[in-house]
Amino acid sequence: MGRQSQTDPAQTAGLLDFTQRWAECCGRRRISIDLVDAVTDARMAQKEYLQAKLTQFLREDRIQLWKPPYTDENKEVGLALKDLAKKYSDKLECCENEVEKIMEEIRCKAIERGTGNEHYKTTGIATIEVFLPPRVRKDRKNRLETRLHITGRELRSKIAETFGFQESYIKIVINKKQLQLGRTLEEQGVTHNVKAMVLELKQSEEDTRKNVQVEEDEQNEAKLKEKRIQRTKRGLEILAERAEMVVDPETTPYLDIANQTGRSIRMPPSERKALVLAMGYHEKGRAFLKRKEYGIALPCLLDADRYFCECCPELLDTVDNYAVLQLDIVWCYFRLGQLECLDDAEKKLNLAQKCFKNCYGENHQRLVHIKGNCGKEKILFLRLYLLQGIRNYLSGNGEVACDYLSKAHQLFKELYIDPTKVDNLLQLGFTAQEARLGLRACDGNVDHAAAHITNRREELAQIRKEEKEKKRRRLENINSLKGMGYSTHAARQALHQASGNLDEALKILVSNPQMWWLNDSDPQTNNCQESPSQESINQLVYMGFEAVAAEAALRVFRGNVQLAAQTLAHNGGSLPPDLQFSAEDSSSTPSTSPSDSAAASSASTDEDMETEAVNEILEDIPEHEEDYLDSTLEDEEILIAEYLCYVENIKSATKKN
């Protein structure tokens, strides 16, 4: 299971893929709560815009609010601030009192920051700007003083105590990375004036009491979520390890990497493991995003980003996985209400745009060449333009925001699907996801979409059949080499070098007997004995080899007569120099320890836990290879309308007293 684009730029336009494997009525009370939340969100967004715009004006006019005449010697506000507020409110055509209030906040924060800088220089005590969860509507940004030699666990404890959280139910994200509890802040690159975002895995007790629908088991919600995160990590590690092994696909789930057509990709083992982990964490993060569990999704997405960075740069430049991940990370920060915490949001969005261009080609011509259309991929650009519009609005760039939001709105109109057309395809036996993807690929034509979906189903079925046969042959070849005495690892490496040709792989192994020593955990190929049997020695002597050479070869190959004979024959009756070592250097049969029975008794428990962790990962890996391109666009529709309204209000705003 898996999917990646090939390294040939002409063939890279698809996402790397894995090919494996509260909904209730809204009463009046719920609707009224949503309306209040919407009004609150609108006010916060408009305030952020004003704050960004005023900061921009102050920078352009080179005004320093923490100095006279705006601040007196006692650090109190000066009368000149009111005149400045009037000037800027006239310029923005908005309420003078609101402008003055925001400018006073900017002035106070500048003074506070300056005081903190001086304090840090003299005492070494750093200030961290703490961003609290969205439910904390008041004073979401707070400052916390700390020394940088403390551990991440100590900082988490301090944040929990200061702001009223339960310590084990929060995670801290700094510099787009989860805070590691066992390392010091200095070791993790935490500096003075850094931003720290708090992710809450559980609501406060007060909020829990307010929620009349809460169930008793929600008291353990955070613990369950933390366990899910740990199971995710373990499950992906197991699947990544299996990617390096040879397993029977009929009995053992594993992850494979394939291109946009569904065909497996050959790549170096080290890169494959990093890519499996990166894509696995990304898929798990996307699953949490779909369930709107943003607090759990973000750590998974950040882990995916870390593993993608371990892949070769050429890969990241030629596939769209990394670009989609950047969009998902920015989207997650936005949905958490912490977009200002992501200092490089613009950089991530620009990186995504550049990657899409490299991958799809100018005007998507490479994408059209490979897939025949680009209708489905337009949804990625809609999300990109929407996020660019929101980020620019919150940064005070109203005109730029309007341009991006207008582009997003135009794409939305192109991608909107008539529900009756989806119903028509459902009646033909297709899924809703297939219907949406097919209609977008065929510009809304139902007949063409039905043919497109059917053809794709047939293509994938054929590809899966071919891939299954390739895996079966590879497993047979490996078992054949194992039957000759070679380890699984040696057999895999030889077949890899021989491009799957069994005869060539055998020649490679015979010419390189040291490959027999490649690490392998297969107990069937690790039969060790202190000294070879006389019967084995006699067999080699009967073949014409000297008794001394026969015994030495059998010691090297731990009694395997076939390997010893092949090596001696290939090297003129003696061992090659690099395998000539004394008997005491060879391995001996490990004795059975008293703890063997105890280890065996716990093995089944560990195996059950691993199976549970793996199955939980596989459940969240979508069946459809283009799942990442499917969306009802309900959230996007609301946000486009909301932020277009904000930018229109900028143009038509009038003074209010």
TrEMBL record:
UniProt entry tagged with the keyword Nucleus: yes
Feature: compositional bias, Low complexity: 582-604
Keyword Transferase carried by entry: no
Keywords: Coiled coil, Nucleus, Repeat
Annotated stretches, region: Disordered: 575-612
Pfam families, alphabetized: SASH1_Homeodomain (PF26285), UBA (PF00627), Ubiquitin_5 (PF18037)
Domain UBA span(s) in chain numbering: 416-456, 466-512, 531-571
Chief location of this protein within or outside the cell: nucleus
GO cellular component annotations of the record: nucleus
GO biological process terms on file: proteolysis involved in protein catabolic process
InterPro entries: NUB1, NUB1_ubiquitin-like_dom, SASH1/NUB1_homeodomain, UBA, UBA-like_sf, Ubiquitin-like_domsf
Ranges in a coiled coil: 85-112, 450-478
Subcellular location: Nucleus
Domain of life of the organism encoding this protein: Eukaryota
Protein name: NEDD8 ultimate buster 1
